[in-house]
Task: inverse folding
């Protein structure tokens, strides 16, 4: 048994008439797969780290992350991008073509209409996922304007946390970066995200950043959530 499983590894045991089946938990296999994909991407001969970008917008966060990895000596490329409004996606491609993979898959339209099978996920070999989830339900101005009791009540943005989690489950990235307004930390959506990512083997770090800390002209706070392995 020790040759098949780690000493601290949890297993799934199925007892049926005439047989006992012992196998690794699905989550353990998923964790191993995403770590292997990232390790291979970090090896020079295996090319760049592939990124999935949800709620891509104009690609501001993607460009910043790309620049940060580049300063650390690592190459990233957006392998999959989804954005509701085509004009923003087109602008991103036109103005920062260097952040995209030559084989990038682009989906213009609502994220709820995105459907990827397991084979597509394996072929893309995604290691990182960025998601700038819509903040119109969580921001103070959005909640006031729309007379919302809670962020999840927003007709357009309220369910976006679900589709974000579905994207993470589909791509199984080694690391996740989420961005929103600071008020999002206190939403039920964020509580669900924390609990689900923890169950999937991610360690969560959260911090509120101010643009002025990094030389931006706009005095604006944003919540950044990082999900990674220990």
Result:
């Amino acid at each position: 048994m020790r040759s098949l499983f780690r000493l601290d590894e949890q297993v799934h045991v199925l007892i049926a008439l005439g047989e006992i089946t012992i196998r690794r938990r699905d989550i353990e296999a998923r964790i191993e797969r995403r770590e292997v994909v990232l390790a291979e991407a970090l090896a020079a001969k295996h090319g760049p780290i592939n990124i999935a970008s949800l709620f891509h917008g104009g690609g501001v966060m993607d460009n910043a992350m790309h620049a940060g990895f580049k300063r650390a000596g690592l190459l990233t490329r957006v392998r999959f991008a989804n954005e509701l409004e085509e004009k923003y996606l087109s602008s991103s491609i036109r103005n920062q073509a260097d952040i995209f993979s030559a084989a990038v898959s682009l989906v213009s339209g609502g994220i709820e209409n995105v459907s990827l099978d397991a084979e597509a996920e394996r072929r893309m070999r995604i290691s990182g996922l960025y998601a700038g989830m819509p903040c119109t339900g969580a921001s103070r101005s959005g909640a006031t304007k729309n007379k919302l009791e809670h962020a999840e009540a927003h007709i357009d943005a309220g369910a976006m946390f679900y589709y974000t989690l579905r994207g993470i489950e589909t791509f199984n990235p080694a690391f996740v970066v989420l961005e929103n307004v600071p008020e999002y930390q206190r939403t039920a959506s964020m509580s669900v995200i924390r609990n689900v990512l923890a169950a999937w083997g991610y360690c969560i770090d959260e911090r509120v950043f101010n643009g002025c800390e990094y030389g931006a002209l706009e005095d604006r706070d944003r919540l950044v959530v990082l999900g990674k392995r220990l």
Observations:
- The chain is about 35% helix and 25% strand.
- The chain has a mean pLDDT of 85.
- The helical segments are 26-42, 60-71, 86-95, 118-124, 140-145, 160-171, 188-199.
